[in-house]
Amino acid sequence: MSTAIKPRHIGRNISRIRELRDMKQEALAHAIGVSQQTVSTIEGSESIDDERLKAIAEALGVSSEAIKNFSEDSVFNIIGNTYNDDASTIKNYNCTFNPLDKLLESIEKNEQLYERLIQVEREKAAYLEKLLKEK
């Protein structure tokens, strides 16, 4: 039985981080300028050259050390501290009024204006009739 520490599988780490970022292999491939098949091969590799690892880390928004020293807790912490999305910020879009109440108010105002218009038209018609009778 050996007590030697097994080296970390960098490809699996990349795959897991990519999945945590909700990124497809095609998107990562496009970001680093390779094909989807190359990304699949990279994710199957135990080790990756430092230059490619740096490019992948940049595309995933984490450091290359985070990929090398992958653990669920550390990655969640790094992503939580570096990922900036407007959806994650709290916004208060609650109305301070009931839109239906405002709609009903406007309908009532329209009815009042219509009734005033009808009254004015009646008065005008009565005035014109009075003028016609006088002649």
TrEMBL record:
InterPro entries: Cro/C1-type_HTH (IPR001387), Lambda_DNA-bd_dom_sf (IPR010982). Residues 14-67 form the HTH cro/C1-type domain. Keywords: Coiled coil, DNA-binding. SUPFAM superfamilies: lambda repressor-like DNA-binding domains. It comes from the Bacteria. Residues 100-130 form a coiled coil. PANTHER family: DNA-BIDING PHAGE PROTEIN, TRACRIPTIONAL REGULATORY PROTEIN-RELATED-RELATED. This is Helix-turn-helix transcriptional regulator.
